Amino acid sequence: MAAFGGWLLGIAVAAATFEGDTTRVLVAARLEDAAHRPRIDGRLDENVWQRAPVATDFVQERPQPGAPARARTEVRLLVDDAALYVGARLYDAPDSVLAPLGPRDATNLTSDWFDVLVDSYHDRRTAFQFSVNPRGVQKDVLYYDDTRADPSWDAVWDAAARVDSAGWTVEIRIPLSQLRFRSGEPAWGLNFRRVRARADEVSHWAPILPTEGRYVSRFGKLVGMGDLRPRRRIELLPYGALGARRRPRAAVDPLHPRHEALLRAGVDLKIPLTSALTANVTVNPDFGQAEADPAYVNLTAFEVFLPEKRPFFLEGTQIFRFPVGLGDGGQVATDVLFYSRRIGRAPQRAVLGGMARVPEATTILAASKLSGQVRGGWTVGILQALTARETAEVRTGAGSAWTTVEPFTHYAVVRAQRTLAAGNAGFVAILTSTNRAFGATDSLNFLPRSAYAAGVEGFRRFAANTMQVQAKLAATWVTGDSVALIRLQRSAVHNFGRPDAPHLKVDPRARSMGGWAGTFTLERVGGGNWRWGVFGLARSPGFEPNDLGFVTLVDAVGGGAYVRRFAVRPTGWTRSWNVSVSSSTLFSWGGERLLVEANANGGVQWANLWFSFGGVSVRGAGFDRAALRGGPALLSPPSARVFLGTNTDPSRSFQATWTLSGSREWDTGGWDGGGNLNLTWRPAPQASWQVQPSWTVRWHPWQYVAARSLDGRPRYLVAGLEQRTLALTMRASYVVSPRLSVQLYAQPFVSGGRYRDLRVVADPHASAFERRLPRIARRFESLPAREAGGVRLYRADTDGDGQADVELMRPDFLVRQLALNLVARWDVRPGSSLYLVWTQNRAGTLAGDNAPAVVDPFDAFARLSGLRPGLPPNHALLVKMTVWFGR
Question: The pTM is what?
Fold first, then answer.
């Protein structure tokens, strides 16, 4: 009877759709009897599937947008009070189905896929994606802001798939507890997507066209679910980890024993508070499986932005996003008000002298996230975290002492988003806070006591959803001791007190600092094959969100524009192509020209599924305010950069990607060149191997070396740096089944730098390079030197009177690092996993006269691999078990 009612409802909805609403509609078949629930085994042999309405007539997104899919797909959907059930028959020739095995959430696995996308909020902005390949490999993705995807989101669900003579079939069970929705919602957004990898074909049930610039807002509807009630069950995920660490003999001392036991335990809880609002709480979170950060040598004045890899902060990251930058490249592309790597960072106070045991990271005592929707259509996210007061033990000849290296800190982020006009308009507000508690004996007054940031954003689509206007405004307020505020004002980000910047003055009595930032964009985002946009950016000198955010550029105002043309329909030689040009300009509030740049780039996918790309950028002369580390801005020369590369057919068992790039400075002779190669080989469906070598050679004629004071006046020294860097990233995996896999990750890294052409800054604003930076020595070997405490100090004449007046060490370096992880994972059941993790790390740095004159990659890799002595390893072995309760 329920099935018959579903058919009648389907006829009524279809009639309404025919009358004017072109949105596709699917009626869910209601399961009233638990005995009729399908078994999730990949076989569609239960009668209940045949009684459910079918979704078919998929439409291509590519290669022929809007054309019917070339292989038939039939999808049926069932629902009861506990879960959604999806069954799909995907017709194809069996030898056309690409079905490799891979670990769960293998986002880079080239395969056929079937995706279920559910907009259970029905806000036309957010969707949950559940993907299965023909071998039953699962991955899940969260869509937000209509078109953006977050692959770090994880859910607990079941799936199975089978390949047969007609193609393949898939069954999926999605517990309602893994979705967010309001009680009594009459319809949800729904779509199905199919990927046929060998044909490079993507098709959807509710058509998605690449020329529209929309995704979730183009979904169809799911109706006929009845009065579903969210299943408000507490989910519990405790973990326990036991292991051991072994240090090399050379690193052993009374504070660092050679063998050390590792014992950790903690728990994550997910507590539903309302039908669409959930709290996540973690106590002593574990990040033992987080992949190591890529190795690098940072010779700039700014810190390096590192991606988040810790599961607790990765999941739901879109709820707390508030970027304040523009574009997908350049200095401001990664600027955000909330940068989760601040929480649990390495202690900020350096310990000098004696033997010290310093924590590698600050302990996160507890953290919580509250997220979901509340009345009125608001989506809210609240994050709080408490980090411990960390101390370091220091031993000197006088005995042992404990010193505080990081204070007890409370972090908080609150973000709210309101979607209007059926997802075509919206408003976002965010507030972040950092509050530190200093003890009476802590010597940490160089850190701000409190820091706050707030931001608002609004956007509106118009002109039949082809145009979008967006504006953002953010403000910050930092308080603390005068020591902290002076340090902040003189930092590389702000550079207050520069002798050539009268609009930037250091206030030695300041106890607080405020600032603001704003952006504006007007873009054509849909309709046809043309895209264009204009944008503007402004930041005050005192804008400072870096206690919980990430920003490196302030005191700037400017704007730019771009135009893009693309084609998505195949021709005789190509399947698609795109080309774009852009320009941007930035000035400081004092009128200094910071950036004048023009770019052109493009790409083409050929008929054989290869893809070629390339581009060129030209930059005019501008002032680098951080080049001299607090000194005057240095005029940087005009330059040009070019890159090009090619990807081979990703559906083949052997794939390759190569990229070459290079740049040249016009009047200094500076240049760099390099390339990287990405080779992927899949010798069998269950095995894969990937190697990514990269090699860079660089000649930088004005790399900062040192600052010295002479007669009360600063002297800034730079030199030419010849740097060679070789990195190799290797990944290998063997997947026994979708629930049992072994993965290996290794990254050896070598970078060496040799300095010559020592120069002094004479006139930092002069147009000619030799006037800006006259040479005082071609090679360090030509300078007089003396030994002091086992260190060789070189003496240089900076004022040309024939007398050496400054001393400095030779800045040459050689950095060698190896990070290796071996992880075996067994998903015992959905949500519960057993891990075996082995890590090895080797690192060593040679500096000054000890650094070799030539980087020998063969010697470096032999030492990193242990074939030659010199870099003893650190080992760690860990067994971890997580158990999920809440089904």
Answer: 0.87
